[in-house]
Structure formats: C-alpha cells, structure tokens
Amino acid sequence: MYLSTNESYFATKFGTGEVRSLRDRVKICAFAGFKYIDVSLCGSRESLNPASFDDCVDRARALREYCDGMGVSINQTHAPFVYQLKKDPLCMERAVEVSAILGADNMVIHADASVSRDGIFSTELDLKKICEFYAPYAELAAKRGIHLAVENLFEEDTSTGERKRFTSTVEEQIAVIEYLGPQVMTACWDFGHGRVTYGDGQIEALKKVRKYLAATHVHDNMIGRDLHQHVFCGGTDWIEIMKYLHETGYDKGFTFEMVYGKLPDELVTDFLKFQKKVGDYMITSMK
Fold first, then answer.
1. Which of 57, 85, 86, 283 suits 113 as a labelling partner, its CA being 20 to 30 A distant?
2. Domain range for residue 267?
3. What's the pTM value of the predicted model, to 2 decimals?
C-alpha cells in the first residue's frame, strides 16, 4: 500500500480566487513528500477536463514529462461526471487517453446513471443504461492499459427514504463491475461515502467489494454528511479499516481526497507535510 493525495484541493488560492496551474499543484504536493498524486479531470479551470479543453491530450503529455522530471507518478485520475460526459461524445475517449498518457492505473468513474423516469428508481434500468454507456470506454481503457474504477456513492437526500442514486450501495457498485467484467473494471472505495451510507458498518460493505478493490478515496465525516474532512476528524474507525487493508494484502493507492475549504498559501505546505506524516503513520504503524 502506498500513499497519494489529490491535487485539486489546492486549485484555488484562499481569499483571491486565483487558480494555481496544475503544474504548481503537483509541485507543492511533491515538495511535501508525496510521490503519488491523484489528478482530477472534473474541473474546468486549469485542469485536464476533456469537456473544457480540446488540447487536453497535449496538456497531459506536458504534465507527464513534468511529473517524470519531478520523480512523481500519477496513480489514478477521476473522470468527468456523467452529466459532463454525455454532453460530448469525445469527452470520455479523451479522458481515457489523458489517463493513459499520465500513467494512471485506474480512472475513477461515477456510475449514477439518473436514467429512471417518472420519479421511479430502477436498479435494473440504471444498471443496463450505465453499462451500455461505459462499455466501449471500458474496452478502450483496457487496450490503453488502465481500468475504470467504479466509485461507491451515497444518497444525497435520505429524508424520504426513497432511492434516487444508483451505485450508492455496494451491491450496485459490484453489479457494474461484474456486468462489464472485472478484466476491464475495478472498484474505488470512498471511505467518506461508505460512512455516509453504512455508518459504523462500512467494513462489512468493504469486505464485499474487496476482490475488486484497486483504488481509494480517503477522508472522514460525521453526522451522516459527506464532509471530506481529514482522517481522525470524524467518526470513521481507522484502526479497524487499516487492520483490514493490511490483513487482506491491499497493495494499491491509499489516496487522500480533500474537497471542501481552502487554505491560506502560508499554511498549504505545512498542511501537506502533516497529511503526509499522518498517511505514513496509518500505512506503517496501524496494522
């Protein structure tokens, strides 16, 4: 198991709205000691989002050369969201190509199809539609040496008790992988989403998807909300989780995914160094 972090958390500077270049985001992560980085293809400003830039492939080649020179590897990417992908038929093809150029092992995808009609949620319909959508790209990704990693999601609104979001259960996550085939698909387990959905019982859900697990999103939360807090700042039982990952021989990325909030420039490096220290502690000492 190795440590990585997402660069997108540092995209926008605190207080100014100024956007750091992707190269600068990679650099500050590398200077803090990270050797592996998760690159988002979802953003629209100074990103590699295929939905925003026609030259994303050229940008990816330049970033790969820069990362190689810095001694940094891109372990995974995050595909644009489904609503972005459906607007442009070339978007997902470009995302696959960008991920392959960067050297990622997995490109994380959301599979919340939102294709059900008349307000009636249908697992069967969503499974069929989302797999039809992703099937050609899964094959393309496999030819380029990467996998599409299905992320576990969560229900945005649980007040009515109604299901609205496909792949917010581990069974649906697994169904997508098995429908398209584990030779081209893997799983990304998002621990924050897992806690929103399963609370203290997410370890049992993780056990169900373990044989497909190839990527992670690591963050914490409380009060049933997807807060993307730092580890140990919520209610997740990290002792249990780390023990399980070590016992099962998980040897892929342990990837922080910070999202909400911004840090003043003067604190960014210290924050990243602390994050690196915490991650190293979790991987080496929590067994």
1. 57
2. 2-285
3. 0.95
